[in-house]
Write a structure and sequence with these properties.
CATH architecture of the largest domain: 3-Layer(aba) Sandwich
Number of domains: 2
Order of helices and strands: HEHHHHEHEEEHHEEEH
CATH class of the largest domain: Alpha Beta
Helix content: 25-40%
Largest sheet: 6 strands, parallel
CATH superfamily of the largest domain: TPP-binding domain
Shape: elongated
CATH topology of the largest domain: Rossmann fold
Distance between the termini: 20 Å
């Protein structure tokens, strides 16, 4: 089907839904310079994110974060799709965003109702005293930030949790998706089934925007095979 016709179906679904939730993954950030981890050797990258590297080779640790997230966060603007979701939120057409992304781009775009289920670079703590620094701006200093209480190095949730799930944000995701009449899947590949996706109601309408096949294909009543920016330019 022609993408413009599919976009009209999406627009109609948005206007008819009383509670819409978006699920976003790495794909929504590609056009904003976000990293495609499918094209990276994660097995080589993750050891560099260890506490040993943070303490003993902080420049190497910072370089890893800069390569993976920081450059795109601070040098580039959010993608058109990020901004479009904020616009939908402002206009009452989007009630929440559930994301596996840690790049804070939804927050940078201005979205307020965001559940970062794997945490993000705006959830940080001191490695020594445990003081929290929940602000992504601390990573925009060209070096690893240090605690203003004890002077030790600070690291970020996605790494100190071992890429675990953030309980507070996970509970938000479960609550939002249990209320959803419409779920938009945007640039995401996996559902994190029992963690939150299976909390959806029976009969919830699901529309996916992704250029390639994903684990969501069989759930969606409409699969739009295009990039998110292209699709949202047609409706927002």
């Amino acid at each position: 089907m022609d993408i413009s016709k599919q976009a009209l179906q999406l627009k109609k679904a948005l206007n008819e839904s009383r509670y819409t939730v978006a699920i976003t993954g790495a794909g929504i950030s590609f056009s904003a310079g976000g990293m495609n981890f499918d094209h990276e050797n994660v097995a080589e990258l993750m050891p560099l994110a260890s506490e040993d590297t943070l303490r003993n080779e902080p420049d190497k640790y910072y370089k890893l974060l800069d390569h993976a997230f920081l450059h795109s966060m601070f040098a580039n603007e959010p993608s058109y799709a990020h901004k479009a979701l904020r616009s939908l939120e402002i206009n009452g057409l989007l009630q929440g965003i559930i994301t596996t992304n840690v790049d804070c781009m939804h927050t940078i775009a201005g979205s307020e109702n965001v559940a970062e289920i794997q945490g993000s670079l705006q959830i940080n703590r001191c490695t020594k005293c445990g003081k929290h620094f929940d602000d992504y701006h601390i990573w925009n200093q060209g070096t690893v930030p240090r605690c203003d209480e004890c002077g030790d190095v600070i690291w970020t949730f996605p790494f100190y949790s071992g890429v675990g799930l953030h309980e507070e944000n996970l509970k938000k995701a479960q609550d939002w998706i249990s209320k959803a009449e419409l779920i938009l899947i945007i640039g995401a590949n996996g559902s994190y089934g029992n963690a939150y996706f299976n909390y959806r109601k029976r009969g919830t309408k699901i529309i996916q925007i992704n250029p390639g096949e994903t684990n969501f294909d069989s759930y969606a009543s409409l699969n739009i095979r295009a990039g998110a920016d292209e699709v949202f330019r047609l409706i927002v």
